[in-house]
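User: Show me a protein chain along with its predicted structure.
Assistant: Here is one chain, sequence first, then structure tokens.
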Amino acid sequence: MKARLRSKVWWPRIDKDVENVVKACKGCTLVSLPNPPVPMKRRELPTAPWVDIAVDLMGPLPSQEYILVVVDYYSRYKEVKITKTITSLQIIKLLKESFSRLGYPISITADNGRQFVSEEFRTFCKECNIRLFNTIPYWPQMNGEVERQNRDILKRLRISHIENKDLKESLWEYLLMYNNTPHTVTGRSPSELFFQRQSRDKIPSLGEINYRSNDSEIRDKDKIQKEKGKEYGDRKRKALESDIIEGDKVYVKTMEKSNKLTTNFNPTPHVVESEHNGDCTVRNSETDQRFRRNVIHLKRVEGKWTSVPSDQSSEEQSLEN
């Protein structure tokens, strides 16, 4: 557009005027690419094992079973439960079995699956004095630890399926191997950090190794590795601080497209009611329905927006708009 205009006309600030026209084009905005993500916010290492945990569901497997994955943020120790029922009551029952051995954590991070946002699950967490954190819908990176663990479990299950092995036995073998292997970030095995001892496996040991209670070395290494990962991830994703603020009018990304001509963003304007580190709450201007979305799912409405009196005719409204 700039090149075409320059070949025929010119006026002061021609480039800026062209950019403003394009930004104010509703159709261009609705089919444009999403905003870049905000820079990563790294989670601080908890003070001890089983303080902050994450839970997630995988499945279904060929046997129509599901896997409940529970990961400890401090040690990276994980447990899995296999179930055919994934109701909130069944999830609570499976978690109670773990809590009976390990005690209640301080917080649980989960996605927005119906099992984890139900009134039964919220009541259970409240009765157990557990803080429940639900991630932003359609933003699994917010619970990256358990999502990363799910990927490893899925790889092992696929190998077992190809080799025609029993999936459950393969899963137990994998957990024994994983929980007793030094982690690349902490330098210690998850079992060692979690239980403060080294678990026995098939590999012969030279003798008992005393657990060092001073974990300053682990914390320093954890912080360094996380910062390296943050810098690399932010650079690769071209992350930028969000300029969307409370009160902005935005379009919300279309999560489920009905056909090939569906626009990338919903044409109905929404108002940003709150924003914190890319976590936004928006309200539909027509239905007053509220949504929680990441800033990457939003696109600011550019251009001048004015109210149209209801007594104006349709022809007048179209001319003014």
